[in-house]
Write a structure and sequence with these properties.
transmembrane, 13 helices, BP-dep_ABC_trans_perm, mainly alpha, cell membrane, transmembrane helix, MetI-like_sf, globular
Length: about 280
């Protein structure tokens, strides 16, 4: 069916409204983070920033505030390790499921799906007891372990579907040239599957970055807790709340995800599409 002029107008109108609905809250957050306390609580809110100040950002990153720099470091380290482990395991396991006839492969895929259903509060107490018995409470290690249990099943499923889109003739040609299976995987196959690998790595990073409940229960010191918990503690603390500092913290936390997604969005969309269609 050929798209008419009116249909095109209607489509772009809806997209514009969705864009406004998505961007306006962030733009207001960004705008307000540069205002003074008096301007934030003015009786008539305005987009105009006067006077312009960076006090909120100074508070957020300084020792008087939530020490966002340390919390960001914890989150970045935890999420980066999660993404790296997920990408490595999902790549190798997904390749094996896509290329080899494994007994009970359908059952394996069912388990991968069921693994996503048993998360959150259902297993919070077992995780806490496990971390306590292994002396992993208040460490980044336990967070990485938990995040990997959530991301690896999805990653294996997506990478398996992505590897199925790659012609096996390319691998056979590499074997004829004398390449080993391991060399063929890393030199021939993985470069072609890079969009899928980037997709699951970014998914893993964002999932860990947005986590609140596990970090809240399993960490309690500046050495391990993440940015989500740090901001929540400031908002729930007694006394005067520095809303400007909280807004500035929100901007700082959001920007890394926006920048990462903007850089690799092409790979993310290609990877998720191929994995979901062929998996």
């Amino acid at each position: 069916m050929r798209e008419t002029y009116l249909m095109r107008i209607w489509k772009y109108t809806i997209l514009f409204l969705l864009l406004v609905f998505t961007l306006v809250p962030f733009l207001w957050l960004l705008d307000t983070s540069f205002k003074s306390d008096e301007a934030i609580f003015a009786s008539k809110p305005t987009w105009w920033v006067s006077p312009f100040t960076l006090d909120s950002y100074t508070w957020a990153l300084g020792k008087k505030g939530i020490q966002l720099g340390k919390l960001l470091s914890n989150s970045l380290i935890t999420c980066a390790i999660t993404a790296l482990i997920t990408g490595l395991i999902a790549c190798i396991s997904g390749y094996g499921l896509a290329r080899y006839k494994v007994p009970g492969i359908k059952f394996i895929f069912v388990l991968l799906v069921l693994a996503q259903m048993i998360q959150g509060p259902m297993i919070m107490i077992p995780w806490y007891k496990f971390a306590s018995s292994m002396s992993l409470l208040n460490t980044k290690t336990i967070l990485v372990m938990i995040y990997c249990t959530m991301t690896i099943p999805v990653g294996v499923w997506i990478m398996s579907g992505f590897f199925k889109t790659i012609p096996i003739d390319l691998e056979e040609a590499a074997y004829m040239d004398g390449a080993s299976k391991l060399k063929t995987l890393f030199v021939v196959v993985i470069p072609l599957a890079l969009p899928g690998l980037v997709a699951i790595s970014l998914y893993s990073f964002i999932l860990g970055w947005n986590d609140y409940q596990y970090s809240l229960i399993l960490t309690n010191s500046l050495a391990a807790k993440t940015v989500q918990v740090g901001i929540a503690e400031v908002m729930e603390s007694m006394g005067s709340t520095n809303w400007g500092g909280i807004l500035a913290s929100g901007v700082i936390i959001i920007l890394p995800i926006i920048l990462i997604f903007a850089i690799i969005q092409k790979f993310l969309i290609e990877g998720l599409t191929a994995g979901s269609v062929k998996g």
